[in-house]
C-alpha cells in the first residue's frame, strides 16, 4: 500500500476521533443528561463539516465508550448515556490478557492500592456509605455457604469502600477489577473458615472506618490483603502464574 493510500485511511480515523471528542465536550458543556438526544444526522453533518461515513465512525467510537446509544429507526439516533466502569474493565483486562500478565499482578496491585483506599474511606465515608458497609458485612455473614452470593457481596464490600474513599480513580479502578479480584476466575476456592476470617476482617475494617481511624483501617486492610496473598500462594500457587483471560474476567 502506498503512503498516499495509508494517509487517506488515517485521516478519516483521526477526524472521526477529533469529532467524537468535540461531541463529548459539547455534551458536557450543554449539561446533557442520559436519555437526551443529540442532533439528527443532517444537522451534525453540517455542524462538523464532515462526511456521513466519518460521522458514523465518530458515533461508533462514542457508542463503544458508553457515551451514547444508537437507537435505530426513523425516530432514533444518538442518545446520551453515562459511561461506566465496564469500558475500563474491558480495556484493562484486554491489556492484561495481551501482555499475558499473571493473577499475581492483581494481587500486588491490590496490596498497594486498597490500604490507602481504606484510609481515605475512614476520612470521607458518608453515613449512607457506612451503613452500606455495615449491612454488607452482616448479610455476607448470613450467607457464607452460598458461594455465588458470598463472592458477589464480598466484591461489593470493596466497591463500597472505593466509593467511600471519595477518590473517583479508586472507585473506577476497583469497579474495573471486580471480575478478577478474588481469584475465582483463576481457580482459587475459599472454604467456609477462610470466608469467616475474611468477613471478620471486613467487620474490623468497617469498625475502624466508622470510628474514623484511618491508620487502623489502613493497617487492617494491608494485613487482610497479605493474608489473602499468603493463602493463595500456599494453596493455589499455580493460580498466581495463571494469565488474566479477557473472555472470563473482562467479558
Main β-sheet description: 2 strands, antiparallel
Q: Outline, from the CA principal axes?
A: elongated
| Distance separating the two termini | 35 Å
Number of helices: 12
* Low-confidence parts: 1-10
Q: Largest sheet, order of strands side by side?
A: 1-2
Give the strand tally. Answer: 2
Radius of gyration from CA coordinates:
22 Å
Overall mean pLDDT stands at 89
The percentage helix is over 70%
What structural category characterises the helix and strand content? mainly alpha
The gist of it:
With 251 residues, this protein is mainly alpha-helical. The chain is 71% helix and 3% strand.
Provide structural commentary:
The protein has 251 residues and is mostly helical. It has a two-stranded antiparallel ribbon. It contains 12 helices and 2 strands; from the N terminus they run αααββααααααααα.
Which key features would you list for this structure?
mainly alpha, two-stranded antiparallel ribbon, 2 strands
Which SSEs are present, and which pair or pack?
Layout: H1 3-29, H2 41-48, H3 52-64, E1 68-71, E2 77-80, H4 85-98, H5 103-124, H6 127-141, H7 147-164, H8 168-177, H9 192-210, H10 214-235, H11 237-241, H12 246-250
Antiparallel strand pairs: 1-2
Helix pairs in contact: 1-3, 4-8, 5-7, 5-9, 5-10, 6-7, 6-9, 7-8, 9-10
